[in-house]
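Q: I'm a student working through a structural biology exercise. My instructor gave each of us a protein and asked us to get a predicted structure, then write a short paragraph describing it. Mine is Oxidoreductase. I'm not confident about reading structure output yet, so if you can add a plain explanation after the C-alpha cells, that would really help. Here is the sequence I was given:
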Amino acid sequence: MAIVGTGNIARFHVEALRSLDAPVRIVAGVDLDAGLATSFCAAHGIPFADTDVERALTHTRPDVVHVCTPPGAHLAPARAALNAGAHVVVEKPPTLSLRDFDALADAQPAGGPYVATVFQHRFGSGARRIRALLDAGVLGRPLVARCDTLWYRPDAYFDPPWRGRWETEGGGPTMGHGIHQMDLLSAVLGEWTRVSALARRQARRTATEDLSVAHVSFANGAVASVVNSLLSPREESYLRFDFEYATVELTHLYGYGDDDWRVTPAPGHEESVTAAWKAGEHGRNSGHAAQFALVADAVREGSVPPVDTAEARRTMTLVAGVYASAFGGRPVGPDDVGPGSPHYENMRGDGPPWTEET
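A: Happy to help. First, here is the predicted structure for Oxidoreductase. I'll explain a few features afterward.
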C-alpha cells in the first residue's frame, strides 16, 4: 500500500491497515509538503517518503494507493495510480463533480485495477445485518426512512482556505459530511428516483451551504427525509428505517458498533424479527478497517474491491440531486444531473441563491 496525502485522515488509514488480520505493507507516503511527508513516514515506520506521486509509484510499485488528500486533489493521484497498475482507495467525496467522477471511472482499465471509494459505514456488522435481513424478507418492504447528519462546526473550522469553498470541497455538509449517512441510506434502499430539497447558508461564513433538507423517493417505493447540518450543538448521526415488520434505528456520531443499533418489531412479528436480528452478523464496527479488510481480500483474489464506481456514483448522483433541486427550486430525478446539466459539471451548478464569496 502507498498513502498519498499525509494529513489527519491518513493516520486513520495507516492505523486501520495495520489492524488487519491479513498482513499488508505500507511502502510509501507522499505529500506535496516534503516536511509533512518525511515526518509522517518517520512517525509510522514507512520506508519511502516523497513529494512526487509518479516517482513514488515507480520506486515502490504498490498494489493499492490510498488517496487521502483534500477532495479537490483526489483526481490526479488516483489517475496516476491506475496508470501505474495500482488499485485506488479514495476518500470521500471521490471527486468534486460527476463529470470528474465519470472521468475517473473511465480511467479504470478493463479487468482492473479498480477504484474503491471510502464509505466504511456500509461494512460494520449492523449495516450488513440489516441488508441481509432485508434481502431475506425478514423485515418486509421498506416504507419510510430518516437520515440525519446533525453536526456542529464553528466558524474557526473553516479557517483553512480549502474549507467551505465549492472549488476545493465541492460542497458543504451535503457533500462533505452527510455523504456517509446518505451512502448508507442508499446502500439499504437502492436507486433513488426523485428528490425535492432546499439548501441554505444559514449561519456560517462559507461559500457553500451549511444546511440542507431533502425528501427522497426510491424505486422500491420507500421515501426518506434527509437533513445535513453543521449547526447542531447536540451532535448526532441518526438513521431510521421503518419496514413492514420492524423499525431499525442507528444512533451514533462518527462511527458505530453493535450497541448503537436498535430494532423494534411490529406487532405479530416479535419472535421472527428478534430471533433473526440476534442471529445476524455481530462484532465489527464501522471503522475504516471494516472496508479495508474487504479491499485487501479483493485485491488478493483479483476481484473488484468495494465500494466500486457504480455504487459510489449512485451516492454522488443523490448529492448532486439535492443541490440541483435546492438551487433550481424544483424536484429532480437522476437524469436531471446527467451530462448537459450544470450540476454534472460541478455540484453548485449555476450557483446558489447567495453569490458573495468569503
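A: Here are two points you could use in your paragraph. The CA atoms of residues 132 and 274 lie 14 Å apart. The longest helix spans residues 309-328. It's a good idea to check both against the output above yourself.
Q: Great, thank you!
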